[in-house]
Structure to design on (654 residues):
C-alpha cells in the first residue's frame, strides 16, 4: 500500500520574523487537519480525486485560508470564489469562477465535472447550477472574516488597483521589514491538494477567494484547467498558488506537464526549472505529484503554507509541515 | 514589406452537398470583408494586435457568424459571449467570459488587457467594466437572429443537453446525409484571427457566442489564454474553433506552442500532429501563424470557414478562402 498527498494553503511574503507563536500554532494545526482529511481517504484505499476534494473542503471551511469561508473581499465588498478539480486517470475536470454564496466551491467544481456537460461555469450561472444541485448556499456574512475585512478596508478606496497587483514583486521586497499585517495584501492565498492513490491514479484540486480588492468578475488562475490546476496520470497532478495573472501568462500547470512529456524531465527537475528559473521570482509556488507517488513543493516566494505525507510500499511514512523557506 | 493574416469563422459539419449557392456567396463575402479589415492594417504597417482585433470586430458585427450580433442562445434564452486577445511580443492578454449585451467582446478583451490589472473578467463584473470603459451596450434583441432562435427553439426543452454536446462526434457522422439545418447545432461557431505584422510581431484574437442551449455561465475555450487563444513571438499565434470542452482538456493553443518550443517541431508539423493525430477527430480546427509569417489552417471536422493572405518580401501575395475540406 503506497500513497502520497501534498497540500498548500497559499504562498507569499510569509516571514518567521513576522509570525506570532499563536498564529503559527493555528496554521500548523489547520494544515495537519486538512492533510489528515485527505490522507485518511487514501489510507483506506479511496481515490486521489476524493482525497484532494476532502483536503480542500477542510481548508475552505477554515477561516485562516483565503478560500471558502475565509475568502477575501473584492472591489465591491463581495466574496467571489474560484475553484477547480481534475482527475488524472480520466482527464475529466470541473471548475467554477467568480461564484458567490457557495459554501464549498470545490464540491461545486466536482458536480460541474460529473453532472454538467461543461467544464467551467462562472458567476450567476454557476450559482444557479449550485442551487439546482441543492448545494448549501450561505449568506454573504458567512464569508466576512474580520481579518479579510480589515485588509479590504485599508485599500478599498485606492485608485491604484493596478499598481497593487502589478508591482507586488517590488513591494514584497520593500516590505520585508514591515510587520505581517502590512504584508497581508501581498499574500497569495489559494488552497490546494494533489494526491496519488493506491492504484497509482493522481488528482488535483484548487480553491481560492482571489485577491483583495480585485474587480468584480475577475477570474484568476485557480479555476482554469492547465493553468492553476491540472492532473494527468501520464505526467503529473499540480495545484498552483501565486500571482494569478503571472501564472495565467505562463500556463504554469500545463507547462509543468509539457516539460515532463515533451522534454523528458523528471517531476523534480521540471518543478525546479519552472519555479526557480522560468517564473519571475517572488510570484508563488506549486505542489505536484506523479503516478509513482513522488511529490514536489517548490516555491519562489518568502514562504508557502504546506504539508505532505508519503507512504512507501515498505510501510515507511515521510510527512511534514512547512511555512517558511527554511522549513 | 512582409505580413500574414489568417481568419476563421467556425468549424463543424459543413458539407458542400448541404450548402446553397446563396449562402456560400454570403459566407465568402463575409470572410473577404473580415480578411480585408485585418490585412489593410497590416499593409499600412499596423500591428498584428490591431489587425486581429479589426478582423474579429468585423465578424462580430456580421450575423452569419456565432459571435457578437450572431451569437447563439443559451439555456435561458440569453446571449452570453466569450472572447480573448493576446500580443505575442509582450505576452499581454485579455479575455471576457459569459458577458451579456456588449456589442464587441473582442474590444472589451483588449480593454481588459490594457486598462485593468487582470486578464480575465466574467459575467456581471465584465459588463460593469465595459460600462465603466464606456463601451456600447446593446439590448438583448440586437443579438436575436432568426436562425439562432430557431436553433435554440428546437432543443430548448431537451433534457439531453449533455448528450447534445458529448455525443457530437457520433452525431456528426450519422448526420452526414441530413440537410444543413439539422446540423446547425453541431457547428462550432467561433470566429478568430491570427496575424504577423511587418515587424515580425504576432497576435491572436478569438470571439464566440458558445454553444446553443449551453448552461448559463458556461465558459468555453475561446476566452482562456493558452486554450482557445494564444500568442508568443517565440512560437506561434493561434486561435481555435471546435468543441470547447475537448479543446480545454487538451489545452490546444498552448500545446501547439509547447510542441514547437520543447519538441522543436515546425509550425506545420506541430499543427498536423496536434489536429490530425492527437485531438479526437471531428472536434474542430485552428489557425496559426509564426513570427516568420508562415501560416497553417488545419481542421479535423467536415469543414471550416477560413481565409488567409500572405505577402512575401518579394511582393508575391498568396490569398484564399475556404469552407469545405476539399477547398
Amino acid at each position: 500500500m503506497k500513497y502520497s498527498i501534498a497540500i498548500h494553503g497559499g504562498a507569499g511574503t510569509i516571514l518567521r520574523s513576522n509570525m506570532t507563536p499563536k498564529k503559527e500554532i493555528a496554521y500548523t494545526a489547520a494544515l495537519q487537519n486538512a492533510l489528515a482529511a485527505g490522507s485518511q481517504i487514501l489510507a483506506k484505499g479511496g481515490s486521489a480525486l476524493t482525497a484532494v476534494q476532502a483536503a480542500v473542503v477542510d481548508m475552505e471551511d477554515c477561516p485562516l485560508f483565503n478560500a471558502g469561508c475565509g475568502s477575501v473581499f473584492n472591489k465591491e465588498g463581495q466574496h467571489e470564489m474560484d475553484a477547480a478539480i481534475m482527475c488524472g486517470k480520466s482527464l475529466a475536470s470541473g471548475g467554477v469562477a467568480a461564484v458567490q454564496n457557495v459554501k464549498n466551491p470545490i464540491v461545486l467544481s466536482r458536480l460541474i465535472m460529473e453532472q454538467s456537460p461543461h467544464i467551467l461555469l462562472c458567476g450567476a450561472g454557476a450559482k444557479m447550477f449550485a442551487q439546482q444541485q441543492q448545494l448549501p448556499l450561505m449568506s454573504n456574512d458567512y464569508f466576512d472574516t474580520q481579518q479579510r475585512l480589515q485588509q479590504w478596508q485599508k485599500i478599498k478606496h485606492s485608485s491604484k488597483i493596478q499598481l497593487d497587483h502589478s508591482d507586488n514583486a517590488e513591494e514584497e521586497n520593500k516590505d520585508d521589514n514591515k510587520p505581517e499585517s502590512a504584508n497581508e495584501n501581498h499574500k497569495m492565498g489559494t488552497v490546494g491538494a494533489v494526491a496519488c492513490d493506491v492504484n497509482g491514479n493522481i488528482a488535483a484540486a484548487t480553491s481560492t477567494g482571489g485577491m483583495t480588492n480585485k474587480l468584480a468578475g475577475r477570474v484568476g488562475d485557480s479555476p482554469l484547467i492547465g493553468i492553476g490546476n491540472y492532473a494527468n496520470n501520464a505526467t503529473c497532478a499540480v495545484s498552483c498558488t501565486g500571482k494569478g495573472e503571472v501564472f495565467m501568462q505562463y500556463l504554469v500547470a500545463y507547462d509543468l506537464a509539457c516539460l515532463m512529456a515533451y522534454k523528458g524531465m523528471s517531476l523534480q527537475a521540471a518543478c525546479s526549472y519552472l519555479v526557480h528559473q522560468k517564473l519571475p521570482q517572488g510570484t508563488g509556488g506549486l505542489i505536484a505529484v506523479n503516478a509513482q507517488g513522488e511529490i514536489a513543493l517548490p516555491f519562489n516566494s518568502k514562504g508557502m503554507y504546506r504539508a505532505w505525507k508519503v507512504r512507501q510500499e515498505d510501510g515507511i511514512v515521510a510527512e511534514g509541515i512547512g511555512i517558511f523557506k527554511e522549513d
Summary: The longest helix of chain A spans residues 21-43. Confidence is low (pLDDT under 50) at residues 159-185 of chain A.
